[in-house]
Amino acid sequence: MSAKLSTCFFSHGFISLNHNSNNKNNVVCYKKHVNPRLLFVPSRRLLPASCKMRRRNLSSQNMRPQGNKPPSDQIPESAKLQPNSDEESEPENSVPNSEDMEHIVQHETTYEDDVNTRVDVEHINEQNLGTVSVSAIETNRDVEHTDGQNLDSLTLPAVTKALAINRDGGEQVSGVQLEDLIGMIKNAERNILLLNQARVHALEDLHKILSEKESLQGEINILEMRLAEADARIKVASQEKIHVELLEDQLEKLRNELIHRGGSGKSELQLCENQNKISKEEALLARDGHVHSLSKEVDSLRTENLALKYDIQALKSMLSNFKGTNERMVTLENERSFLESALKELESKLSVYQQDSSNISTLKVECKDLWAKVENLQLLLDKATKQADQAISVLQQNHDLRKKVDKLEESLRDANVFKLSSEKMQQYNELMQQKMKLLEERLQKSDQEILSYVQLYQESVKEFQETLDSLKEESKKRALDEPVDDMPWEFWSCLLLTIDGWVLEKKISSSDAKLLKEFVWKRDRRIRDAYMACKEKNEHEVISKFLCLTSSQASPGLYVIHIAAEMAPVAKVGGLGDVVTGLAKALQKKGHLVEIVLPKYDCMQYDSIRDLRALDVTIESYFDGKLFQNKVWVGTVEGLPVYFIEPHHPNKFFWRGQYYGEHDDFKRFSFFSRAALELLLQAGKKPDIIHCHDWQTAFVAPLYWDLYAPKGLNSARICFTCHNFEYQGSASASELASCGLDVQQLNRPDRMQDNSANDRVNPVKGAIVFSNIVTTVSPTYAEEVRTAEGGRGLHSTLNFHSKKFMGILNGIDTDAWNPATDTFLKVQYSANDLQGKAENKAAMRRHLGLSSADDQRPLVGSITRLVPQKGVHLIRHAIYRALEMGGQFVLLGSSPVAHIQKEFEGMASQFQNHDHIRLILKYDEYLSHYIYAASDMFIIPSIFEPCGLTQMIAMRYGSVPIARKTGGLNDSVFDVDDDTIPHQFQNGFTFTTPDEQGVNTALERAFNLYKNDKASWQRLVQKDMNIDFSWDSSASQYEELYAKSVARARAAASRT
Question: Can you tell me the distance from the alpha carbon of 165 to that of 924, in angstroms, rounded to the nearest whole number?
Answer without folding.
Answer: 115
